[in-house]
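Subject: sequence -> C-alpha cells, single chain

Hey, anyone have a minute? Need the predicted structure for the following. Not urgent.
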Amino acid sequence: PVHLLGNKDAPVQLLIEPDLSHSKKSWGGLLVVNAAAQSRMRHVVVTGSARTEITGRQDANGLTGCITFYKSNLSIRNATFSGLHCEDALNIVHSKFDFDHLEISDSKADALDSDFSHGKITNSTFRNNKNDDLDLSGSDVELRSSTFVNSGDKAISVGEGSILEAGDIKITGATAGIVSKDQSVVNIR
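Reply:
Had a minute. Here:
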C-alpha cells in the first residue's frame, strides 16, 4: 500500500509530469497493484503538468489513469487533484474505496473512474473537467453531499450494471446531469 500522509499546513504534494520520450508517450503518475492493505491519502495535492497533452485513451503502458489503484483498497481524506491530462485523473479498478473531501478539477478527460469497485464518496467537489466527472462501470457506489460544476460531458455516468445511491448532490453546468445505462440502477434522494 501507499501512505501519503500530510497535514493541513504541510500537505503531501505530487506533480504528475508526462514522459514524452516513448513513441506512444506516457503520462506518468502512480500505479498501485494488488496491495496487501488499504492505501491512505491524507491532505494530498496532486497537480498535473501544463506541458504537452497526450492524446488517446491509454498511455504507452496501457494505463488510462494518472493515479490508478488496481485490486488495491484506498481511503482519501482532504485531497485535491488538478490539471491532470490522462483519460482518468483517478482510476479505481476492482477495489474498495472511501473518499471524503476530495476535489478533482480541470482534468483533460474524466475526473474519477470506478471500474468494478465498491465505495463511498462524501463532501466532494468536481469542477471544470472536460469529460465525465464521475464515471461508474460495474460499480456499487454511495454518493453524498457532493457538488459537480461545469462538467464537459456527464456529471455522473452510471453504466454496465452499476448501482448508485446518491443524496444531497448539486449539479450545475453539465451537458447531462446523471445518465443511467446498461441495466444500471440509480436512486437519488
